[in-house]
Structure formats: C-alpha cells, structure tokens
Amino acid sequence: MEREGETSVVVAVVTEPRFTQRYRDYLEKQKLLDRQHRVQKLRDGMVALPVLAETLPERQLQELRNRVAPGSSCRLTQLLDPLPSKKARVCSPAQSLCLEVRRWVEDRGVTWCAELEADLPRSWQRHGDLMLLSEDCFQAEQWQSLEPELWETVASALGVQRLAKRGRVLPDGTRTPSVTLLLGDHGWVEHMDNGIRYTFDVTQCMFSFGNITEKLRVASLSCAGEVLVDLYAGIGYFTLPFLVHAGAAFVHACEWNPHAAAALRNNLEINGVADRCQIHFGDNRKLQLSNAADRVNLGLIPSSEEGWPVACQVLRKDVGGVLHIHQNVESFSGRKPQPLGSSDTRKEHGPHPQKIITDKQGNGTTGNVRGDMLPSASKPEWHSWAESTATQIASLLHRVHGGVWRTQILRVHPVKSYAPHVDHMVLDLECRPVL
Ligand SMILES: C[S@@+](CC[C@H](N)C(=O)[O-])C[C@H]1O[C@@H](n2cnc3c(N)ncnc32)[C@H](O)[C@@H]1O
Known about the structure:
The structure is a single chain. The chain is of the alpha/beta class. The protein folds into three domains: 9-88, 2-Layer Sandwich (Alpha-Beta Plaits), CATH 3.30.70.2580; 91-185, GMP Synthetase, Chain A, domain 3, CATH 3.30.300.110; 210-433, 3-Layer(aba) Sandwich (Rossmann fold), CATH 3.40.50.150. The protein has eleven helices and 21 strands. It has helices at 20-29, 58-68, 86-90, 93-107, 114-118, 149-158, 212-220, 239-244, 258-270, 308-314, 380-401, and strands at residues 9-15, 40-41, 47-50, 75-80, 124-127, 130-133, 162-169, 177-183, 188-193, 196-201, 227-230, 250-255, 277-281, 295-298, 321-330, 338-339, 346-348, 356-359, 377-378, 405-419, 422-433. Strands 13-12-11-14-15-21-20-18-17 form a nine-stranded mixed sheet, with helices on both faces. Strands 2-3-1-4 form a four-stranded antiparallel sheet, with helices on one face. Strand 20 (405-419) and strand 21 form a beta hairpin. Helix 4 packs antiparallel against helix 6 and helix 10 (308-314) crosses helix 11. The radius of gyration is 25 Å and the shape is globular. The protein binds S-adenosylmethionine. S-adenosylmethionine (SAM) is lined by residues 173-175, 206, 208, 211, 232, 234, 237-238, 254-257, 260, 283-285, 299-300.
C-alpha cells in the first residue's frame, strides 16, 4: 500500500548520462516517465530514470538502445527509497490529486465542497501503470455525472495510465477481490518480487503486499529434494519462492479460482519452473494425493483449518514432514506481549494419550532446525493457538495414517497485524511418526 510519506521501491531505466535527455523525451512520450521521483546518479556514474511500470518489455529496451539513443547501454534496476522530484516535494501525491481534480471539476461548473474533498482517495496500491484505489473513495453521487472523463484526470494526477477501485474481498472462499476497472482495457499487471515475476489480473485475483516477509522467509528455506504441497496456491505467492529459491524438487499446487490458476500457470512458465509443478485445479479437500509430501503449505487466512485433514493425508506416512499453518489469531485487548513461556513440557493429549505427543523445546525460545528464533516478545494467545494446533494435528495424523505421531512446534511467528488485536500467524510444525 502506498501512502503519503511511506518508503517505496521504483523501477528505473539506467543509461549513460549523455543520453538522459533522449531517454527522458522517449519515456515521457510513452507516458512511462515517473514524475514523482527524481532522475538519480548512480555510484558507477550511470543515471537512473524512474518509470511508471514494474518492468519494460525487451522490445522497448531495444528501441531505446538502437533507435532512441544508438550506442547507449540500457538496463533496468530498482531504486530503494527513491528521491522525490521537485514537483513531488512541493506537493504530496494526495495534495496534487486534490488540486487537479478540484480544478477539473470546477472547470465543468460543479461547485467544489468539503464532501467531495473528503471523498478523494487517501491510500492506493500501485501496480506498475495501474493504480488500485481503496474502496472508501468516490462514493458521493456528484461524481457520477463526471464519469468517465473524471478517471483520466485522476489517473493523470497520480501518474498512471490505468485505474481500478477496490471493493471488499468476497467471502466466497476464492478470496476474489471485487475490483472494478475504471480506466484501461484490462486488469493484468506484473510484479517483480525477490527475483520472481508474478503476473495476474487485479480484477480477479488478490495480491498480498503484507506477506512479503513470509515470502522472503520461505525463499530462504532449504528444501532441496523435497516434495511440497501448496494447498492454497493462488497465483504462486509461495509456490514460486519454494521452487525458484528454496530448491523444492516438486510442488503440487492446489487452487480452485480459475483466474488464479491461469495466472499461476503463466507465472510458472515465465519463471522457468513449470516442469516441477503440477496444478491441481479444484477443491483441495477432494485432492487425490496421499503419502507424498515432505512439506505442506497452508497459506489461507482467517483460517486454514479446513485444510488440516488433507494436509495430514498428503504428508509422508513413513517419515512425516513439516506443515506451515497460517491463521489469524485474536489477542485480547489490554494484555501486553509477553516473553515466551519457559516451561519444558512434553505433553500427552487425549483422546489417545499414549499415542499423541506434542513436544516443545524448553529453553524459553522455540527454535527451528535452522536456528531461527521466535521474536523476544510473544503473546500468550499465539502460544496457546500453536499448542492446541499441534495437539489437533497429532490426533488427525493418527486418524489418517494410524500409529503414534509426535508434533513439535518449530516456530510460531507473526506475518502481519491483520486488524486491531488480530495477528496473521504462521506455525511451522514438524510431524514425525514415532517408530
Ligand atoms: C489467500 S489466497 C492466496 C494465498 C497466498 N498463499 C498468500 O498468502 O498470498 C488463498 C487462495 O486459496 C484458494 N483456495 C481457498 N480455498 C480453497 C480450496 N478449498 N481449494 C483450493 N483452493 C482454495 C483461493 O482461491 C485463493 O486463491
């Protein structure tokens, strides 16, 4: 989410300083030049011109190299915390949006009022040249007589070519965002994230910027040789880092939203890993796969509980594996985060107390096999959720595969704050049959 004053990353075209003006003219003509950020000199003497897209097609880079400025070298980079341009420093994006929309509205004889001003967007998500506005804007009736030209003014003020507006994520299980395209002829966008390309249609699929830390963590795991099942694959937010960076040998990716499955198929292709993934289109609870996975990802919030039985079913019966279980966990107001409990407990739980063992490490932290530690502060509710989940999974594994199962909490970690007193958590749970 891009908000006033927040840091960001922009894509920029890099060339030699003597070609700056020609590059600038070309990018301006193509409506690609990002006027909110300054052209920057890089340490190696090259210059970087910020652009409004997430990436430029090779065809355009070649045009710059060969036709616009023959002899120039041209490549793409990402600028972290790009410097604001003079224009942006004088006026924040929200202020310049307000000024431009107001001027345009008054030119059409409509009286500007506080209601209209309060109804302008305050936050938005940039997807390259498409700006996705929050749902709480442009709700006043007066706007209707000004559409569709209004959207061109808004887009131009925000420095983009396409515009869409968000509604609520539909509670239909597919996490489909009800997004309306206001300007432009399609909702396909592209993101480059940790070296992985993701394309998808913003009007049909969701993209969680807030899960970035978890995607990076997944990418840093070492899963060489492992078979993984991603029960809620979406467009590949976790499937791709597991394949591209963590070195998973094969991923079974489950997805029931046809638009997300189509985007996933495309993303596997463009990242060169399609041969190591099978998409299981449909309801994962009916998945015809068992006793196959070393690792299962259950990336669904508010809860992935409906996927627990199938997660146990697909886990290898002989050696077990690791589950990554996502869940929104509520904490009660007025209670401060506390250091993790330091009890050294090895608990046995019913209904088959002799068969189900959950095991915590007893050193005041919960370290995983790679030595990651829990944050020093943790809420008691996170802990109880993790323990109760570990117990339930052990019981499910016994029911599905038979025998005695031991579940061990490797790590329980917040991904993001979802709402006041609600945290999106991930539990890494090691599940092993006791021989
Ligand atoms: C939250 S989204 C994508 C999650 C992604 N792992 C992330 O955190 O960014 C969850 C995805 O699971 C899919 N999904 C939900 N329930 C499902 C089910 N029972 N079977 C298959 N796919 C399901 C939805 O269509 C959606 O694309």
